[in-house]
């Protein structure tokens, strides 16, 4: 065993590269020209675009080299970083301020001393103890992507993807684009569990429209040589099997070194990302992050958070002030021709935590309808019913989703309340938006509720209100009503409402239209005329999506 001597200059050893480790290394170099910076990476790639891996498998990214952002040689030339790939850290001696590494190629061990140590080990794919699971491919590194791409090149006819989260859906799309018949199996009752059911059903329908068989509420019991068996006894053909059921933080090394873990199983750190040992920092997917909604800690595996943490650690090591930023969990995914995005918490999580909230739905067009190509989005905004604090948002649509979710995320970071979204001065031209941007519309809707100007009914509460004697009124046109309506509703088009008030009787009224806008106008009119009236949140489109989602959940796995 050879030893790397400690020099007189400050030595910073970083365990793991990619987002967290490399942002620490490069930022620190820009702040300190003399520090000795050593990066130890057990794989063969220290700086690569792991979010691009599914698209390499699908052939949209044609060259493997395109995934590599920087090589060790390039990092040395530009930053004078000592980057050592195929070098796995196997032990940390905090007392002696050194780590022991083992070459994954030769097995040779080396002791490397440090003044400051940064752990950026990331997370590893979950591999459950299912018989035959050793055949299942996962997608976390460039090496994983290369193996999976080689499997795809053999032209398998069928594939099963286990897990319908973000990565599972991305790899599903790319396998379909390679001509493979894909079945996706998800243990929870819906695809994309972070989404509300009435939005997740839109994603599932997009998958089905592109030939994907979707099995929700189903679990895998075993993996065979050319098949996957479910717990209910059904068997699906699978020349290829890909596992995407989540990741676990890589904490074994930290545990062996006596570092503390947090309540979610990640490495516990303070506001400067220091562990309980002030000379040992930790960043990235292995670390517990402060949650912006609960103010507790949780595991959020996102590259931009890892980058931000790496920069903060470099500042702290260099003696600069740094400030913590709580994480919102902003995420987005493209699924064939639609996009789904989320920020903050969903209603289910808030309800489980006992946190009061109000939710509103809208179905705005991504740009002015008189300009060609406008498409609808489905948006959900969740906020505190007392002070308007934005607690979360979700959007599904074909265009403009990324812009709107990012605006809401920025508003949450800036502490804007839901009603203040109406005041945001956002760019407008017919190809890009409407004079009232979809985000502004959500702000107006939230303001109406917070100010008491509008009382909305959630889709799941309609049946109960009807049973209690409320009259259900569809204020859409006769043509719209004929194409589909909520059972039991009477059709009184909004433009004829004043002339047909006698048809409403004296019972309280639940009003609905297509998306809620005409319903709001009708509700306000009825209030002025002395009626007790409430508007159906999100209108017929949200009610219909909620109904389809409920039916899908009730049906369970396909037969």
Q: Topology of this structure?
A:
Blueprint: E1 2-4, E2 11-15, H1 18-31, E3 36-40, E4 47-48, H2 53-57, E5 68-70, H3 72-79, E6 82-84, E7 87-93, E8 98-103, E9 109-113, E10 116-119, E11 123-125, H4 142-153, E12 158-162, H5 166-177, E13 181-186, H6 197-209, E14 213-216, E15 220-223, E16 227-230, E17 235-237, E18 240-243, E19 247-249, H7 252-256, E20 280-282, E21 289-290, E22 297-298, H8 303-317, E23 331-335, E24 338-344, H9 347-352, E25 358-362, E26 377-383, E27 390-397, H10 401-413, H11 438-450, E28 456-457, H12 462-467, E29 471-474, H13 478-483, E30 490-491, E31 509-512, H14 517-528, E32 533-536, H15 539-555
Parallel strand pairs: 1-9, 2-3, 2-10, 3-6, 10-20, 12-13, 12-18, 13-14, 28-32, 29-30, 29-31, 31-32
Antiparallel strand pairs: 4-5, 7-8, 8-9, 11-19, 15-16, 16-17, 21-22, 23-24, 24-27, 25-26, 26-27
Helix pairs in contact: 1-8, 6-15
In short, what is this structure?
This protein is of the alpha/beta class and 559 residues long.
């Amino acid at each position: 065993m050879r030893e790397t001597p400690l020099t007189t200059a400050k030595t910073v050893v970083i365990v793991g590269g990619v987002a967290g480790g490399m942002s620490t290394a490069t930022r620190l170099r820009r702040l300190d020209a003399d520090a000795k910076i050593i990066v130890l990476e057990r794989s063969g790639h220290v700086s690569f675009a792991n979010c691009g891996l599914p698209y390499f498998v699908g052939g949209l990214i044609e060259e493997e080299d395109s995934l590599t952002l920087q090589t060790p040689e390039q990092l040395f030339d530009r930053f004078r970083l000592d980057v050592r790939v195929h070098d796995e850290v196997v032990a940390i001696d905090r007392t002696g301020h050194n780590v022991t590494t083992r070459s994954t190629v030769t097995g040779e061990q080396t002791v490397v001393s440090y003044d400051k140590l940064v752990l950026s080990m990331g997370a590893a794919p979950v591999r459950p103890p299912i018989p035959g699971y050793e055949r299942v491919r996962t997608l976390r590194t460039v090496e994983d992507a290369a193996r999976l791409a080689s499997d795809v090149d053999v032209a398998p006819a069928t594939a099963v993807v286990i897990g319908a989260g973000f990565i599972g859906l991305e790899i599903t799309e790319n396998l379909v684009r390679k001509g493979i018949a894909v079945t996706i199996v998800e243990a929870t009752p819906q695809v994309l569990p972070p989404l509300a059911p009435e939005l997740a059903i839109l994603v599932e329908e997009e998958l089905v429209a592109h030939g994907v068989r979707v099995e929700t509420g189903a679990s895998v019991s075993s993996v065979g040589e050319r098949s996957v068996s479910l717990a209910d006894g059904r068997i699906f053909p699978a020349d290829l099997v890909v596992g995407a059921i989540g990741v676990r933080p890589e904490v074994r090394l930290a545990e062996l070194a006596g570092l503390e873990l947090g309540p979610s199983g990640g490495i516990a750190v303070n506001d400067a990302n220091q562990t309980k040992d002030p000379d040992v920092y930790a960043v990235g997917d292995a670390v517990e992050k402060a949650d912006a909604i609960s103010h507790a800690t949780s595991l959020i595996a996102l590259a931009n958070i890892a980058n931000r943490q790496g920069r903060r650690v470099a500042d702290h090591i260099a003696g600069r002030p740094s400030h913590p930023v709580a994480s919102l969990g902003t995420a987005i995914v493209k699924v064939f021709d639609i996009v789904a995005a989320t920020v903050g918490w969903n209603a289910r999580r808030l309800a489980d935590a006992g946190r009061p909230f109000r939710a509103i739905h809208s179905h705005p067009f991504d740009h002015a309808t008189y300009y060609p190509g406008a498409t609808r989005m489905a948006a959900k905004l969740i906020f505190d019913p007392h002070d308007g604090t934005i607690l979360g948002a979700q959007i599904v649509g074909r265009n403009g989703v990324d812009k709107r979710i990012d605006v809401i995320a920025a508003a949450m970071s800036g502490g804007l309340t839901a009603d203040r979204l109406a005041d945001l001065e956002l760019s407008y031209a017919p190809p890009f938006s409407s004079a009232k941007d979809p985000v502004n519309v959500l702000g107006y809707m939230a303001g109406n509720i917070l100010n008491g100007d509008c009382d909305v009914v959630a889709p799941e509460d309609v049946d109960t209100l009807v049973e209690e004697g409320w009259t259900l009124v569809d204020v859409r046109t006769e043509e719209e009503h004929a194409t589909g309506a909520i059972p039991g509703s009477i059709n009184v088009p909004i433009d004829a409402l004043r002339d047909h008030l006698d048809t409403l009787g004296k019972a309280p009224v639940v009003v609905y239209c297509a998306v809620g806008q005409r319903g709001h106008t009708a509700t306000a009119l009825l209030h002025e005329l002395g009626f007790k009236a409430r508007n159906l949140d999100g209108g017929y489109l949200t009610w219909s999506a909620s109904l389809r989602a409920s039916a899908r959940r009730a049906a369970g796995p396909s037969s």
